[in-house]
Design a protein that fits this description.
single chain; mainly alpha; Endonuclease Iii, domain 2; Endonuclease III, domain 1; 2 domains; two-stranded antiparallel sheet; 13 helices
Length: about 230
């Protein structure tokens, strides 16, 4: 079991040296300007891959604001909690917590019946020892991870790539089907016109082995209304 210090190191990606990333994107004018304005920014990681998988399922085809509300409800309903200075803090539920629930209980947090089924199914696979998401962190081939996750009901390529990026620190994962990611790429690279997944992947080739990390930087850049100069 990981210590609290190891968990903090992993969640905040404290051991990651950004210098190689910054050097690799220097020739991309837009990304270079953005990284300079967000210098030192590291992408956070969920404490478990299961949390990232559940979050990605919840976020399928709904706004991030609604998704976050549902994720908070999941934590309050199924997560362990502790009290500190009169305040209650909830941990994200484990697969065992959710596997022990009924489909109706899972759906009560605001999920559709289908999404509740997907989450409950994944939780039961893990609880029964048929799925080991944490072990997937050690897999070097991203396509192998996508194939394994894609075989699980309710998990497609987009959900698998998002899970890899946010829960496994696989920074080469690039969920190009994500509307939000395509929007920010379009804003900074295509003048705001709608683009397709293939176009997003083509632009991302310039980011080499990273891909997912620049996408995170673009999302934060948009949120902070960062502008770049044309070169």
């Amino acid at each position: 079991m990981k210590t609290a210090e190891e968990n903090i190191q992993f969640i905040f990606n404290l051991g990651f040296d950004l210098c190689s990333f910054y050097k690799d994107v220097e020739k991309d004018p837009a990304m270079h300007q953005i990284t300079q304005q967000l210098y030192g920014l590291k992408n956070p990681t969920t404490s478990t891959v299961f949390e990232s998988l559940v979050d990605s399922i919840v976020e399928q085809q709904i706004s991030i604001k609604v998704a976050i509300t549902i994720e908070h409800r999941l934590a309050k309903k199924f997560g362990d909690h502790t009290g500190i200075d009169g305040k209650i803090y909830f941990a994200f539920p484990t697969s065992q917590n959710i596997a022990a629930a009924s489909i109706d209980e899972v759906q009560q947090v605001g999920l559709s019946m289908r999404k509740a089924e997907y989450i409950l199914n994944a939780a039961k696979l893990i609880a029964d020892g048929k799925l080991n998401l944490e072990e997937m962190k050690n897999e070097k081939n991203p396509e192998q991870i996508i194939t394994e996750l894609d075989a699980i009901r309710g998990i497609g390529v987009w959900t698998a790539e998002l899970t890899m990026l946010r829960g496994m620190q696989k920074l080469d994962a690039f969920p190009a089907d994500d509307l939000g990611i395509r929007r920010v790429i379009s804003r900074y690279y295509c003048g705001g016109k709608p683009i397709k997944s293939a176009e997003a992947r083509e632009i991302a080739k310039a980011w080499g082995r990273w891909k997912g990390l620049p996408a995170f930087y673009l999302i934060i850049a948009e949120d902070k209304e960062i502008t770049v100069k044309s070169v």
